[in-house]
Design a protein that fits this description.
The complex is a heterodimer of chains A (about 70) and B (about 475). Chain A has about 70 residues and is mainly α. Chain A contains two helices and no strands. Chain A has helices spanning about 1-35, 60-70. Chain A starts with a helix and ends with a helix. Chain B is mostly helical and about 475 residues long. Chain B has helices spanning about 1-5, 10-15, 20-35, 40-45, 50-65, 95-120, 120-140, 145-155, 165-180, 185-190, 190-200, 210-215, 215-230, 235-240, 245, 255-270, 270-275, 280-285, 330-355, 360, 365-380, 385-395, 400-435, 460-465, 470-480; strands spanning about 315-320, 445.
Chain lengths: ~70, ~475
C-alpha cells in the first residue's frame, strides 16, 4: 500500500514536472521566435534602408519615412 | 512538372555542379523509363525499379540546394580579389528549411515508435544511418540541435536578435519528445551520435569514478557555450564540432585530427562525445527522467537473470541495490548534509576563479584579441603586424575606439565569467550531492537520464527474446522461474 502510494506520488510529481517543463519550453521558445513581430528598436543596417531585410518589420522613424516615400 | 523536378532553378544556383548534373541525368533517365514503360515495375517484380527510385529520390534531394536564395550576392571585385571558399553551408530557401523541420519531426516520431513500441535495434540502426546521411552529410551538420543552444542563448541575451524558427524548432522538438519518450533523439536522429554508434566495435567500460568525473564536462561546456553566445563572441559548439569537418568534406587540420581522434576513440569507448562533451545531451539528461514512457530492459517482469548486466556499451544499466551494502544510513545522511552546506562554498569558489579567468576567456572575442594585438604592436611587445591590425591603422576608426570597444566587451566577460564559474561550482556540488543520495532499485533498469535508447539491451533479455519466439530463451526463462 505504502509502495503504491509513493509510486503514485512520484508519478504525480513527475507529470507535474513534465507539464511545467513543456509549458516553459513552448512559451519560452514561442516568445523568442515571436520577437521578430515586434518593431525593431535598433538599426541593424547602418541607417541604410534600401537593402535592409528587416525593413518591413522596422519601427524606426527612418524606416517609417523610407516606407512612406517608397509607397 | 517532371521537367521542373529534373532541372531545378539553375539561375538561382549559379554554375551547375558537375556531381549534381550527373545525378540529374540519372534522375532524368529513371523518370523517362517510368514514363515510357509504366508497367516495368510489374515486369521486373519491383526489383529493378526500387534502387532506381531510391537513386532518383537521393538525386532530387541533392539538387534541392539549387533552390537556395542568396539575399545579398557577393560583389564583383575589379582588383582581382578572390573570395575565399566558405566553410559553412550555402543559404537555403525558406520552404527547404521547413522541410528540415518536417524531416526532424518524422524522424523523432519513427525513433519513438522503434524504441518504445517496436523495440527493434535493427530499425533504430537503420534510422540512425538515414539521419547521418540527411542531417549529417546532406545538410552538412547544420542546423543541428546541439548548435541551436547558442541561437537560443543569444536570442535570450540580446533583445535585438530573433530566434530563427528552424533553430528554435531544432532546439525544442527533441526536448519535447524527450519529455514523452526519453532520449529518442540521441538514439536515432542525431547525426553525431549515429557517426559514433556506427564505428563502435569493441566497447570497453570506463571505470565508474572516471565516468562520473568526465560526466561533469558536458555541463561545463554548456555553460561556456551559453556564455560565449550570450555575449555574442563565438559559437564554440559549432567551431569545435568534431564531426562537421567530415560532414562538409573539408575543414581545418586540427579539427580533422580532433574528429578522427574522436571517431577512433568511439570505436572503443561508446559515444565518447555524447557522454563526455555533448551540451545538448546534458539538457536531455535533465529532461528525460520526466519522460512519460521510458526505455525498459525487459518488456515484462524482470527474472533477475543478470544477462543484461553487460549489455549496455555505455554503462547505463543500473543494478538492483543490495539490501545491506555501502555505508550506514546515518553516515550517508551526514555526508549529504555536509555537501548541501558546502554547495554555496563550491559556487563561491567557482565564481571567484571564473572572475580571475575573465581576461583569458575574453581573448576568444575577435574585438578583444584585436585590441590586445594592436596594443602589443604599438608598445613593441611583438614584432610585425597582422592583416587585422593593418586594417585598423588604415581605417578612419581611431585606435581609442577599438580599445573602448574591447573594454566594454571585457566588462561583459567579467560578469559572464563570474556566472560561468558559479555554474561550474554548482554543477560539481550537485554531482557530489547526487552521488551521495542512495536510490533503491529492485530490478535491472536503464538509467532514465543517461540511457541513449540505442536498444542494444533489448535482445539480451530472455523475456524479450521469448516474445520473438526464441527457443533458447524459453529454456532460460523456465530455468530462472523454477
Amino acid at each position: 500500500m505504502s509502495k503504491k502510494y509513493s509510486e503514485n506520488r512520484r508519478e504525480f510529481l513527475r507529470s507535474l514536472g513534465r507539464g511545467a517543463t513543456l509549458g516553459l519550453l513552448v512559451l519560452g521558445g514561442g516568445s523568442l521566435m515571436k520577437k521578430g513581430d515586434k518593431p525593431i528598436e535598433t538599426c541593424v543596417s547602418d541607417g541604410i534602408c534600401s537593402n535592409c531585410s528587416d525593413l518591413k518589420a522596422c519601427g524606426l522613424p527612418q524606416a517609417l519615412s523610407y516606407r512612406q516615400s517608397d509607397s | 512538372m517532371i521537367r521542373s523536378l529534373i532541372a531545378p532553378n539553375k539561375a538561382a544556383s549559379g554554375p551547375a555542379d558537375p556531381a549534381s548534373a550527373a545525378c540529374n541525368r540519372s534522375n532524368q533517365t529513371t523518370l523517362f523509363q517510368l514514363l515510357r514503360y509504366p508497367d516495368a515495375e510489374a515486369a521486373t517484380g519491383g526489383r529493378a525499379s526500387l534502387p532506381g527510385s531510391l537513386l532518383s529520390a537521393f538525386c532530387f534531394l541533392l539538387s534541392l540546394p539549387a533552390y537556395a536564395v542568396q539575399h545579398f550576392p557577393p560583389p564583383d571585385f575589379t582588383t582581382g580579389h578572390k573570395l575565399p571558399v566558405t566553410a559553412t553551408p550555402p543559404p537555403r530557401a525558406e520552404w527547404l528549411a521547413y522541410m528540415d523541420i518536417g524531416v526532424l519531426i518524422a524522424a523523432l516520431m519513427l525513433a519513438t515508435y522503434f524504441v518504445l513500441w517496436k523495440r527493434n535495434r535493427r530499425a533504430i540502426g537503420g534510422l540512425s544511418i538515414f539521419s547521418l546521411a540527411y542531417f549529417g552529410f546532406y545538410r552538412h551538420g547544420c542546423v543541428c540541435s546541439i548548435g541551436a543552444i547558442q541561437n537560443v542563448a543569444q536570442s535570450i541575451a540580446d533583445p535585438n536578435i530573433v530566434l530563427p524558427v528552424v533553430a528554435g524548432a531544432f532546439f525544442l522538438l527533441p526536448l519535447i519528445f524527450a519529455l514523452f519518450g526519453g532520449r529518442v533523439f540521441c538514439a536515432a536522429v542525431c547525426p553525431l551520435g549515429a557517426a559514433q554508434d556506427i564505428v563502435l566495435m569493441k566497447p570497453s567500460k570506463a571505470p565508474d569514478w572516471l565516468a562520473q568525473c568526465l560526466g561533469v564536462l558536458p555541463w561545463i561546456y554548456l555553460g561556456a557555450a551559453v556564455m560565449y553566445a550570450a555575449i555574442g563572441s563565438a559559437y564554440i559548439i559549432c567551431r569545435y564540432d568534431p564531426f562537421v569537418a567530415f560532414f562538409r568534406f573539408g575543414g581545418s587540420v586540427p579539427m580533422l585530427v580532433f574528429g578522427g581522434g574522436m571517431l577512433v576513440l568511439s570505436m572503443f569507448v561508446g559515444r565518447a562525445y555524447c557522454r563526455f562533451l555533448c551540451p545538448y545531451g546534458a539538457l536531455l539528461r535533465l529532461v528525460s527522467p520526466l519522460a512519460k514512457w521510458k526505455v525498459t530492459v525487459t518488456p515484462d517482469e524482470c527474472v533477475q537473470c543478470r544477462l543484461c548486466e553487460d549489455a549496455c556499451p555505455f554503462g547505463e544499466i543500473r543494478y538492483p541495490t543490495p539490501r545491506d551494502g555501502g555505508i550506514s544510513r546515518t553516515e550517508g545522511k551526514s555526508r549529504l548534509a555536509a555537501l548541501i552546506l558546502l554547495l554555496p562554498v563550491f559556487i563561491g569558489m567557482g565564481a571567484g576563479l571564473g572572475y580571475l579567468a575573465s581576461d583569458k576567456l575574453a581573448q576568444v572575442d575577435p574585438a578583444v584579441s584585436l585590441a590586445k594585438r594592436v596594443w602589443l604592436e604599438d608598445h613593441g611587445k611583438v614584432k610585425g603586424t597582422t592583416l587585422e591590425t593593418d586594417a585598423v591603422r588604415k581605417h578612419d576608426t581611431p585606435k581609442e575606439e577599438v580599445y573602448l570597444q574591447s573594454l566594454a566587451i571585457g566588462k561583459k566577460y567579467r560578469y559572464g565569467s563570474l556566472a560561468l564559474g558559479g555554474w561550474i561550482g554548482l554543477v560539481i556540488g550537485l554531482r557530489l550531492i547526487g552521488l551521495s543520495i542512495r536510490r533503491r532499485r529492485s530490478d535491472y533498469e536503464a538509467d532514465s537520464a543517461g540511457c541513449v535508447a540505442c536498444g542494444r539491451c533489448y535482445l539480451s533479455c530472455p523475456v524479450e527474446r521469448f516474445r520473438h519466439g526464441d527457443a533458447e530463451a524459453i529454456k532460460i526463462l523456465e530455468e530462472y522461474r523454477a
